[in-house]
Amino acid sequence: MAGTEPSSSPTGHGHGHHAVDIRAAAQPEETRPSAMSGPLSLRSDRRPPQAQRAFSRQVSLGSGVAVMGIDRGGRNGGRGGQRALPRSGKSLSVLNNHSGGLGQADGVARRGGDFSMFRTKSTLSKQNSLLPSRIKEELDDVDLAHVEGQSAGRPDVDPLNKSVPAGRYFAALRGPELDEVRDYEDILLPKDEVWPFLLRFPIGCFGVCLGLGSQAILWGALAASPAMRFLRVTPMINVAVWLLAVAVLVATSVTYALKCVFYFEAIRREFFHPVRVNFFFTPSIAAMFLAIGLPRAFAPAKLHPAVWCAFVAPLFALELKIYGQWLSGGKRRLCKVANPSSHLSVVGNFVGAILAARVGWEEAGKFLWAIGMSHYIVVFVTLYQRLPTNEALPMELHPVYSMFIATPSAASLAWAAIYGSFDAVARTFFFMALFLYMSLVVRINFFRGFRFSIAWWSYTFPMTTASLATVKYAEAVPCFMTRALALSLSLMSTTMVSLLLVSTLLHAFVWRSLFPNDLAIAITKDRQGGAKPYGKGRKASKRVNDIKRWAKQAPLSLVSSITKSNSADKDEEERTD
User: Fold this and answer.
1) Are 526 and 153 spatial neighbours (Cβ–Cβ below 8 Å)?
2) Beta carbons within 8 Å of 444's beta carbon, 6+ residues apart
3) What confidence score (pLDDT) does residue 70 get?
């Protein structure tokens, strides 16, 4: 065995390929002299040979074929023309576009991106069932030493893992909505191709329904409020906006339902996203907005309770899941994943309480109000403290901060709807929302310079909710100041929604940039090659150097060095975590 040499033999395809004897590749591991003795050498003897470890890693990685990037026939170099995966945020399938990529016949181009990995019921194990035949065809081209170098120190991982840790999103993404991939990260799909439309359709599109639905309620309140009668608002504006909101909600729901049917794996990625998981509350909230803002010409004297049950049931089920994660204190505990969009998971309780009062179920409204208030206090304190562990809260101000206004405004409206008057409790929450509103308005310069995003629509309904609370306050305390305040806030919210509507239409039909590639759902579970400076990936090379240094030391000094190194590694892991 020690004298076996690699041999070359022609294949049936007419090309000369080099066949590698795997047993020969394991020879250096067996014959290399070792200066270490005792338990350390016995432990190393139990490990499988290098060639076997490298081969198993290659088979288990769904993207390992693209990572190796080996040319046929060694066109790019003397040893098979190995190419390491480029950095700077390239996709793991970027090498498929080059001629001679693994799994590509000579002169035949493959498509750049494999989008089937995000299709419904498409798992990595299902895709790996095709790997043995491909590896059998390409095994002659593989330089096992190079494969070992590429995969050394990397455990078997699933790049399409359905439970990507929350901390992984913070490490791989940036931006207020965590939707931009960092420069040193790799993704599973190509960045230079246009993805299928359903993959580019995010859950944040339901924010458009929130903005239009809340505007329908506002225009209905302006037309019916005695305090705002001087405006002489026609009820037809409420009807027009409500019909537009219904059309948008239906179109958005149908499109996202198709995404659930064809790309359910992408839905899972969005659900595990620490910011986007809160947007899964928006479909129910938008539907309740339409029920509350139903035009008087169509609305019955009292809505049927089945309407409340149909819209609140999915919201309540999702709350049990999310609030349970906050309470259990796991990796998705509140102090770890809290961000301003977390208010979306709370404000739905107050909207449901308002709808419960409309159907005549005051007790159910009180129940939801109590749940919402208890969790609002926790979320508000967590975000207001700016804890060092709260990585989700971005440093720059952004329209997402308008979510601070939504919850106290909705709480005041819900209290007034349940108890029938805008009393002291309702006014207390209204004043809280008014102060937060003013604290954001005086910092208007901090809201400039950010690129347009469809998720901005979710941040328009807080302004509308504050305007509705101001109208109710003007009815309870009628005077010139309250009417002027209600008019000003209503004008600001309507102007913001109008500007966003125009921007959305321009990006959709003129610039065609409304739905860019959704890079946030294509990150890997772990870093694929390379390591972030001063991160955990740096420890592997550090331990290798430590082993070489320990091999030259005396046994007693070796034991002391191991103890010190282990304690130092633990301290480093605690600082990194």
Assistant:
1) no
2) none
3) 39
